[in-house]
């Protein structure tokens, strides 16, 4: 689904990301772990053509992302709160995204109804604009918005951060359900090794911009990762 | 402690985003400031002799209209003057007395440009009074009294800074008073002039403004001090949200989707609301030009014509796509055709221009020729300027903080002077065309020239859009990076 060739990003002579080759297969649930500055967000930003690669390119379902925009219809992402439109209510935001993804109001409503539990009654019909929601609740909105329009690639940066324990638990279920769908490729990054191991069937660890571990998840994965990061 | 605050202020000033804008703009702002200072200076010296020549007593006449001077000052402050801020939140947990923090924050405003600028009028006027033989003590009393009143304005603005719609209310109030006076129905100056005269003529009346100022300072101080909590004055104001569907816009497809969003953007953010308020003021700008041809030549009529209908286009259009800066990354990852995104902004500007032109029909009072100039201005705005602002916007990489209403200590006011400065070149071409027409033919030919420039621009819309689209695409990464700076 996603191919990375010879990709690198350099700022003023400092290389912050260098991935020679990486392939993410269709239907894979891909977990990205690493310390601060490892290059996780840079990698996702390159996948989404938000920054320009210094060398190389990313191919998303046959589309080279920095030359064509044809990847946009089937790719959904939530990197941070800057993906939210602060002056809209959550409902309006969902419908706006729905409009852009060719979904009518009923489609969006159906999706929202399905995730009512995830919202925990704090999002919909709450008479609040997105800018006035707490960080955790903003995140819930952003995550659910990526599911609108049945995208084939879903990219979530640090989805577990700022969420309360119950919501983290529910989010894991949502991601696992997505992962079970062979047509959906999920990419999740996290600082939390346990969460990532639970929801991903493949884990890549990054360090200083390079891929240092690439493992299929198994019983021993968590131990192996903990050992690696316990420097 | 104060030195430490000053140190922080110094850093904040020189490291602020607006300070880092390009040099040309800074120089231009410098010139603008110098221009105003000279105007005030000339006014201060000239007004005395001018009034004398008209056989009016200078000080009484100035006192008579002083209420309008003060009201105008307050209006300008409400619109432009920033509220005092120091980054207060981080200070709260340090061993600094709250009183010190508040005194410094309020005290900072005393040195604001909006207070100092009056020196350039009041000081020369007072000096001329002394030279011309008025009693020195009385002049000093008057000077102090008027300055106290100006500082009262300063504090009123601070206390009221968190209220919306004030500008409109004050403007309406003032217009009504001025109208009543003009038609001789009610004369507010009859009631206020005696006070100003008293300040000049007696020794005791000075106490009124000075005591009022002290009380107001104290009140402001208490107000701020009591609100120095994260859940009071330092909190973000939460509006009660109402979901609006605006379904009637659905028939316009993707453009409708964006229009819906833009309408909400304008309605729900302080910054954009101020912009709209400002564009309404542009509507009345023509009064300056059309009511008296004496000051400006007929060439400047077209200048006014463009301003009258183009207020929204100039103030809002200038900052496309910056209005969407807060969530620009989202826009760039969604399946959004640039053309339709731009089209929606373009339509918004066109609709606003047409609406303003209709409202501006009150200019018919000055004759249909005048209204024709405004219509021609509107045609030029739609045909040419709408494209120019969109093109300019692609290079304007200033992130906009939509939620500038951050409670009593909110950190900036919406409008900025740069907006207007950048728009100056857009007025050059029509003025030139109009001037050529007037010089070598008739006024109607001149108007036709400007109008046809607008029509040609309109005909080239698709070409222009492709060009703008290309610029947007090539600027994409730089724009994303620039918008992230602040976020």
From TrEMBL, chain A:
InterPro entries: AAA+_ATPase (IPR003593), ABC_transporter-like_ATP-bd (IPR003439), ABC_transporter-like_CS (IPR017871), ABC_Transporter_VariousFunc (IPR051782), P-loop_NTPase (IPR027417). Coiled coil: none annotated. Residues 2-231 form the ABC transporter domain. One of its GO terms (molecular function) is ATP hydrolysis activity. Keywords: ATP-binding, Nucleotide-binding, Transport. PROSITE patterns: ABC_TRANSPORTER_1, ABC_TRANSPORTER_2. This is ABC transporter ATP-binding protein. It comes from Flavobacterium pygoscelis.
UniProtKB/TrEMBL annotation, chain B:
InterPro entries: DUF5687. Keywords: Membrane, Transmembrane, Transmembrane helix. It comes from the Bacteria. The chain crosses the membrane at residues 23-50, 62-80, 101-127, 139-159, 166-183, 203-224, 276-296, 302-325, 346-366, 372-395, 415-435, 441-460. It comes from Flavobacterium flabelliforme. The keyword Transmembrane applies. This is ABC-2 type transport system permease protein.
């Amino acid at each position: 689904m996603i191919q990375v060739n010879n990709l690198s990003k350099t700022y003023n002579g400092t290389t912050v990301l260098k991935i020679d080759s990486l392939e993410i297969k269709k239907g894979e649930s891909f977990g990205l772990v690493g310390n601060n500055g490892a290059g996780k967000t840079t990698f996702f930003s390159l996948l989404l053509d938000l920054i320009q690669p210094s060398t190389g390119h990313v191919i998303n379902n046959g589309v080279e992302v920095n030359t064509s925009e044809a990847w946009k219809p089937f790719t959904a992402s939530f990197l941070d709160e800057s993906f939210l439109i602060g002056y809209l209510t959550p409902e309006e935001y969902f419908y706006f995204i729905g409009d852009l993804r060719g979904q009518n109001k009923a489609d969006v409503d159906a999706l929202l109804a399905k995730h009512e539990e995830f919202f925990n009654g704090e999002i919909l019909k709450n008479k609040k604009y997105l800018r006035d929601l707490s960080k955790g609740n903003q995140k819930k909105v952003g995550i659910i918005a990526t599911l609108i329009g049945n995208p084939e690639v879903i990219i979530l940066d640090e989805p577990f951060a700022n969420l309360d324990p119950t919501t983290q638990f529910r989010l894991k279920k949502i991601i696992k359900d997505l992962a079970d769908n062979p047509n959906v490729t999920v990419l999740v990054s996290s600082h939390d090794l346990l969460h990532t191991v639970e929801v991903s069937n493949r884990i890549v660890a990054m360090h200083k911009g390079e891929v240092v571990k690439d493992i299929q998840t198994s019983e021993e994965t968590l131990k192996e990762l903990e050992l690696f990061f316990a420097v | 402690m104060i030195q430490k605050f000053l140190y922080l202020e110094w850093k904040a000033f020189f490291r602020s985003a607006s300070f880092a804008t390009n040099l040309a703009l800074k120089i231009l702002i410098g010139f603008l400031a110098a221009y105003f200072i000279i105007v005030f200076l000339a006014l201060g010296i000239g007004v005395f002799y001018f009034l004398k020549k008209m056989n009016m007593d200078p000080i009484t006449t100035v006192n008579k209209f002083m209420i309008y001077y003060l009201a105008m000052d307050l209006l300008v402050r409400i619109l432009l003057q920033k509220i005092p801020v120091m980054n207060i939140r981080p200070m709260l947990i340090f061993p600094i007395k709250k009183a010190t923090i508040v005194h410094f924050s309020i005290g900072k405003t005393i040195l604001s440009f909006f207070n100092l600028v009056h020196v350039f009028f009041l000081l020369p006027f007072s000096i001329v009074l002394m030279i011309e033989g008025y009693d020195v003590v009385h002049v000093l009393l008057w000077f102090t009294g008027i300055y106290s009143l100006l500082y009262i304005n300063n504090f009123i603005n601070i206390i009221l800074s968190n209220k919306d719609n004030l500008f409109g209310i004050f403007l309406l109030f003032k217009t009504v008073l001025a109208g009543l006076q003009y038609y001789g129905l009610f004369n507010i100056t009859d009631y206020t002039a005696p006070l100003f005269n008293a300040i000049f003529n007696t020794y005791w009346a000075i106490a009124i403004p000075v005591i009022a100022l002290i009380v107001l300072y104290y009140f402001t101080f208490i107000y701020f001090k009591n609100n120095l909590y994260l859940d009071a004055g330092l909190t973000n104001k939460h509006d009660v949200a109402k979901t609006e569907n605006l379904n009637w816009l659905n028939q316009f497809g993707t453009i409708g989707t964006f229009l819906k969003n833009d309408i909400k953007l304008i309605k729900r953010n302080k910054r954009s609301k101020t912009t709209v308020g400002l564009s309404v003021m542009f509507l009345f700008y023509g009064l300056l030009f059309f009511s008296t041809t004496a000051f400006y030549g007929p060439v400047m009529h077209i200048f006014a014509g463009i301003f009258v209908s183009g207020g929204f286009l100039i103030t809002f259009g200038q900052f496309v796509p910056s209005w969407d800066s807060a969530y620009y990354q989202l826009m760039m990852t969604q399946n959004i055709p640039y053309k339709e995104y731009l089209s929606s902004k373009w339509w918004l500007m066109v609709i606003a221009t047409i609406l303003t032109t209709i409202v501006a029909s009150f200019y018919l009072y000055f004759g249909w020729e005048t209204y024709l100039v405004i219509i021609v201005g509107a045609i030029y705005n739609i045909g040419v300027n709408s494209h120019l602002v969109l093109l300019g916007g692609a290079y304007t990489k200033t992130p906009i903080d939509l939620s500038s209403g951050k409670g009593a200590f909110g950190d900036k006011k919406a409008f900025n002077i740069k907006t207007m400065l950048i728009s100056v070149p857009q007025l050059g071409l029509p003025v030139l065309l109009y001037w050529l027409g007037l010089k070598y033919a008739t006024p109607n030919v001149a108007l036709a020239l400007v109008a046809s420039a607008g029509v040609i621009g309109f005909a080239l819309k698709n070409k222009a859009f492709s060009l703008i689209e290309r610029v947007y695409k090539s600027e994409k990464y730089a724009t994303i990076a620039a918008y992230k700076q602040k976020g």
